[in-house]
What we know:
The complex is a heterodimer.
Chain A: H1 18-34, E1 39-43, H2 53-56, E2 60-64, E3 69-71, E4 74-76, H3 81-90, E5 99-104, H4 110-122, E6 126-129
Parallel strand pairs in A: 2-5, 5-6
Antiparallel strand pairs in A: 2-3, 3-4
Chain B: H1 17-33, E1 46-47, E2 51-52, E3 58-62, E4 68-70, E5 73-74, H2 77-88, E6 97-102, H3 108-120, E7 124-128, E8 130-131
Parallel strand pairs in B: 1-8, 3-6, 6-7
Antiparallel strand pairs in B: 3-4, 4-5
Helix pairs in contact in B: 2-3
Amino acid sequence: MRIARTTKLLVEPPSSATGDIAFNLIVFFLVCASVQPDSGRKQTIPSSETVEEDKQTENIEVALTRTAVLVNGDAIPNNRVVSRLKTLLAAKSQPDEKVVVVKSAPDTPYNHWIFATTSIEDAGGVITLQLEEEREVQVP
Amino acid sequence: MKINRRTSRATVPSMAMGDIAFNLLIFFVILARMQDDNHLQWTPAKASQLESAGHSLASVLIDEDNKLYLNGQEIGVSQLAGQIEEVLGDAPQGERTVLVKVHNETLAQRFEPVIEAISEAGGDLVHIVEEQRE
């Protein structure tokens, strides 16, 4: 007697598990999409302290307006800020002298500020913010 | 004649254990890693030479509407330094990272006091920005 050979090559996965598999795949890709590591730039800004006017004159001063960068009072094109600061900082040997005072106009946008401060760091300077002191005036 | 009572054993199917463990794992990963300020609207500024921010204890955000948030909760600038000090606690240097997320068009009169407050609280600033592509 001849017995017919059963050729069962295709093995289907159990259909009851497809729901679980789909759910796990959705959650997996959701996690991948939402948990992206943040990348950024570290910045070291010394704690605020009262600095006397005559001491500030020894440091490089970077003034920021809405669109321009002024290094020690001279307007510098954006593509030359780093090289200009490097030249100025090269003459300073002491770490204290590498402090660069950043003075921003109130209408300076963040993207311009971040460009200027990262340029200072790239040139080897240490950033110090010069903020306008707020004074409360009581009207009688 | 005494007939033995039929005992039925109710067991959790061991087939599902892997799935359950996997789902629990993902659930806790999301809880641990997800920031509360994901729903806030802001556009990052661009800069070069970025590095990974690493693990942070606090996240300060200024959104499109100029509102200030600490870990997703709206806050005033005057309270910021104190709140950050509380969050950072006695964390040692190098583990006091504070993420700074500022909308790219925010003006200095708004964001500079925030940066000053974080610095005053002893936080290590990390500006969250986008990689600048030339």
